[in-house]
Amino acid sequence: MNFILLPVKDLARAKQRLAGLMTQPERTELARLMMEHTFAQVAGVRGCDGVAIVTNYEPAVRLARRYGFEVIGETEQISESASVDFGSRVLAGRGVRTVLRLPIDLPLIAAADIEAILARVGDEPAAVMVPSRDGTGTNALLRTPPDLFPSHFGPHSLAKHQAEAAQRQARCELIELPRIALDVDDPSDLAFLLAQNTDSNVHAYLNALRISERMS
After folding, report:
1. How far apart are CA 168 and CA 148, in angstroms?
2. Is the pLDDT of residue 216 over 90?
3. Do 102 and 151 form a contact (C-beta atoms < 8 A)?
4. Contact at 8 Å (CB) between 121 and 99?
5. Long-range contact list for 46-49, CB < 8 A, 24+ apart?
6. Is the peptide bond before 59 cis (omega within 30 degrees of 0)?
7. Element (DSSP H or E) covering residue 73
8. What is the pLDDT of residues 41-64, one digit of tens each?
9. Contact 99, 51 (CB under 8 A)
10. Reading across the β-sheet that carries 126-131, which strands appear in turn?
11. CA distance 8 to 10
12. What proportions of the chain, in percent to the nearest 5, are helix, strand and coil?
């Protein structure tokens, strides 16, 4: 079996690096819209045996249940890496062979991008990664088995995950997927997103806020 795993933190203090451009309620709404977009695209993926979220954030739980996703509840949120590894262990204990972790702040992601990653699943121990736009982060991480190595999300996570795979002599593959490569963390990410020709709710929201004018 293969599963998609979506870690969701409390969005009440989301996107702190955008504080110079947006109020906290605006940043929370941006994060919520990106979560809704990601959930919708994940729900349309073919060739996946299931989807789970790992969270203690009730709005995410309600949305996940509308889509029929599994909910892996947390009593506390220590870090994204801890949440992903906890969720991966739970799924591995249920017999899941492969877990693809995706973040929820991917405003351009499409179901086809996710299917392209899942198509790389094989029988041998392996890690498949999609780098972030700057080439240092890990915007998607597929592991077979799910607990092949621990997560290191954060600065320079891609090199850390590659090193972990090499240490375990597992196949390691990088895939360039531009729509997954964009996660929104700082003003440069917003500028890049606004330059794309999309008609998404995220794009419409940013235009309604006149973010481009705030950045000029």
Report:
1. 8
2. no
3. no
4. no
5. 46/111, 46/115, 47/2, 47/115, 47/118, 47/119, 48/2, 48/3, 48/4, 48/114, 48/118, 49/1, 49/2, 49/3, 49/96
6. no
7. strand 70-73
8. 999 999 999 999 999 999 999 999
9. no
10. 70-73, 50-55, 2-8, 98-101, 138-144, 126-131, 171-174
11. 7
12. 45, 20, 40
| Residue that is written with structure tokens 């989807």 in the block | 51
Length of the chain: 216
Q: What's the rounded Cα separation, in Å, for the pair 105 and 36? A: 9
Structure tokens at 53: 């979220």
pTM summary value: 0.95
Residue identified by tokens 């997954």 is 180
Residue 29: burial class (beta carbons within 10 Å; 0-12, 13-18, 19+): middle
Residue 126's H or E segment, with its range, is strand 126-131
Instruction: For residues 31 and 111, give the distance between their C-alpha atoms in angstroms, rounded to a whole number.
Output: 19
The count of other CB atoms within 10 Å of the CB of residue 215 is 13
- Cα of 110 vs its chain's centroid, Å: 12
| Average pLDDT of the residues in 22-32 | 97
